[in-house]
């Protein structure tokens, strides 16, 4: 990664982390989930900023209070931290929450459909997808928060499935930019190879959860899916923020050459794509 600018100012070429969180986690203690700490972590790891969602807001029936708290918490750090509020499309007045997200400069909105009981093809999700295209924001879809081996028994919501994600991406008239966060190689391949080339062009995968050596799943995906559809992230405070950088450092020579020709994606590139999709005519 390229470096950070002087005096704590984000470097212009440093990647924007697409998955970070602030706030407490209901199932275990997490280290320093405050925005100020996140800024220091990003600076240390060579990021130029982050898309930030509310960790407690993912577990609330009504996301509005958590979204408002997110905007207030990030306000002193907006040079670094960009809000990704939750928008629940089966909840009253969700359109107003999307409009507020746009007014706050959100590059994306976060979805937690398994926690809301919304199955694939739910009409409310299709409405939200179309509204996000019109608003020029991406859809951020966390597959999970923790691995099954450490997940609390009270955290009963299942992971997002490949079938659900494919249906979301290829719904009727869908042109939305979609970020899938927290997926492993198997899920990524199930989603990717089930899409057309046109659909693949507007999907990105946060690569933080992908295995490196000795399995080398990350290197395999760089060579097959392509590095331009794999996005930088820190996953602070739920995972080690150094993971993404370590995966890149451990790539074999062939995959490194691929990165030289085709850089990894980040929040800046995905936000540009979402804006382009908004401006492009509907099919």
Can you describe what's shown?
With 283 residues, the protein is α/β, with parallel strands linked by helices. It has one domain: TIM Barrel, CATH 3.20.20.140. 38% of the residues lie in helices and 12% in strands. It has twelve helices and eight strands. It has helices at residues 35-45, 64-74, 94-103, 113-116, 123-135, 162-169, 185-192, 197-200, 217-226, 243-249, 253-261, 267-279, and strands at residues 16-22, 49-54, 81-83, 108-110, 138-142, 178-181, 203-206, 230-231. The protein has a five-stranded parallel β-sheet with strand order 4-5-6-7-8, with helices on both faces. Strand 2 (49-54), helix 2 (64-74) and strand 3 form a beta-alpha-beta unit. Helix 3 runs parallel beside helix 5 and helix 6 (162-169) runs parallel beside helix 7 (185-192). The longest helix has 13 residues, at 123-135. It is globular. It starts with 15 loop residues before the first strand and ends with a helix.
Summarize the structure in short.
The protein has 12 helices and 8 strands.
Sum up the structure in keywords.
single chain; alpha/beta; TIM Barrel; 5-stranded parallel β-sheet; 3-stranded parallel β-sheet; disordered N terminus
């Amino acid at each position: 990664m390229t470096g950070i600018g002087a005096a704590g100012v984000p470097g212009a070429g440093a990647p924007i982390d697409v998955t970070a969180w602030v706030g407490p986690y209901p199932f275990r203690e997490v280290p320093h989930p405050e925005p100020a700490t996140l800024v220091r972590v990003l600076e240390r790891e060579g990021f130029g900023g982050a898309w930030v969602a509310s960790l407690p807001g993912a577990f609330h029936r009504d996301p509005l209070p958590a979204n408002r708290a997110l905007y207030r918490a990030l306000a002193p750090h907006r040079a670094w931290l960009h809000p990704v509020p939750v928008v629940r499309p089966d909840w009253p007045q969700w359109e107003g929450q999307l409009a507020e997200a746009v007014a706050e400069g959100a590059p994306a909105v976060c979805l937690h459909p398994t926690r809301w009981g919304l199955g694939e093809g739910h009409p409310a999700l299709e409405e939200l997808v179309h509204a996000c295209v019109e608003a020029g924001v991406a859809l951020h879809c966390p597959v999970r928060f923790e691995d099954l081996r450490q997940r609390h028994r009270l955290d009963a919501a299942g992971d997002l499935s490949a079938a659900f994600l494919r249906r979301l991406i290829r719904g009727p008239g869908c042109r939305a930019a979609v970020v899938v966060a927290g997926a492993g190689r198997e899920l990524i391949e199930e989603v990717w190879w089930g899409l057309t080339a046109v659909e693949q062009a507007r999907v990105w995968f946060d690569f933080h959860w992908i295995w490196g050596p000795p399995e080398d799943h990350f290197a395999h995906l760089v060579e097959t899916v392509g590095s331009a559809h794999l996005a930088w992230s820190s996953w602070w405070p739920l995972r080690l923020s150094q993971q993404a950088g370590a995966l890149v450092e451990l790539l074999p020579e062939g995959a490194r050459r691929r990165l030289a020709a085709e850089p990894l994606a980040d929040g800046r590139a995905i936000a540009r794509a979402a804006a382009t999709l908004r401006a492009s005519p509907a099919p």
